[in-house]
TrEMBL record:
GO terms for molecular function: oxidoreductase activity. This is Aryl-alcohol dehydrogenase-like predicted oxidoreductase. Signal peptide: none annotated. The keyword Transport does not apply. The lineage of its organism: Bacteria, Bacillati, Actinomycetota, Actinomycetes, Pseudonocardiales. Pfam families: Aldo_ket_red. It comes from Pseudonocardia sediminis.
Amino acid sequence: MKTAQLGALEVSRLGLGAMGMSHGYTGAGSDDAESIRTIHRALDLGVTFLDTAEVYGPYVNEELVGRAIAGRRDEVVLATKFGLVSHTGSQAPDSSPANVRAAVEGSLRRLGVDHIDLYYQHRVDPDVPIEETIGAAAELVQQGKVRHLGLSEAWTDTIRRAHATHPIAALQSEYSLWTRDQDELLPLLRELGIGLVPYSPLGKGFLTGQVRLEDLAEDDFRRTTPRFSAENFRANQVLADEVRVVADEAESTPAQVALAWLLAQGDDIAPIPGTKRVSRLEENAAADAVTLTDGQLRHLDDLAPAAGGHHSDAQMRLIER
Ligand SMILES: NC(=O)c1ccc[n+]([C@@H]2O[C@H](COP(=O)([O-])OP(=O)(O)OC[C@H]3O[C@@H](n4cnc5c(N)ncnc54)[C@H](OP(=O)(O)O)[C@@H]3O)[C@@H](O)[C@H]2O)c1
């Protein structure tokens, strides 16, 4: 597995998102044993960059990851996130210094570790100046509880101000063949030496061509995501079809093409596809060896924009633009 550079932090350039093992997706929490086998297989294949968050569950996803990495801590670059659960009696988002200090203790305990490698603010808190949040997080770095700091779904001004307070290693944001906002941010990230961690790199499964609306559970969050409304889903089918065309030509799978396109954008990019199944983990990890031709990359660059937003209105209100 090749590596990517996120600020001063080196990671496997393909990571593993653990959220769907416990939260948000159809089948979450239904087979923890397979989820743990998936994490073990990831480590065996060199997919050592693991992603979780306090709010996934909440809490149970960190506990699951903690169980999976017990005895293998040294092999893992461990990332988690704070700020979408409040421990101060306030409402989330809560990135007050008191909440940052409280959150880290819970995450360390649930993960069963004495430090977190990459600690992200999960969403920008409009009520707390970013300097105060990053100032508090920087104290955790000084105390050895955290190695590197990250932001998620922050935009230009916040990124600059945060980075001026303490070096930011990575921005985690949605970025994929059908969510291209980050094209606009990449020049700034590169100017500052900040890496990009694309979440939902498979378009929440859509780009693999394997999602069927009728299979989604009532509480699957994609049911409230505009792109997955019946009408938009139908309109977007052409995108999945185009990815399939490139996959056939490249003798790979649509998931691998979606990941290989992201990897081709730079060696400061480390996508974290999510799966709770060993077989898909193996398929996704093999994208490390897929090199798309210039023609295939152009074909993918030219895909039409997706129909419908990538998050619900409520979620979008938490995202800086
Ligand atoms: N910072 C943030 O705000 C934020 C937001 C969302 C997610 N994240 C992080 O990013 C990670 C990845 O994002 P995501 O899970 O939302 O989306 P994703 O990686 O784009 O897609 C995950 C979905 O694709 C399916 N899948 C995975 N590999 C597949 C394959 N090879 N073939 C067919 N289907 C496949 C998974 O199903 P199975 O699990 O059943 O295989 C799951 O339904 C999360 O786990 C989480 O850690 C962060």
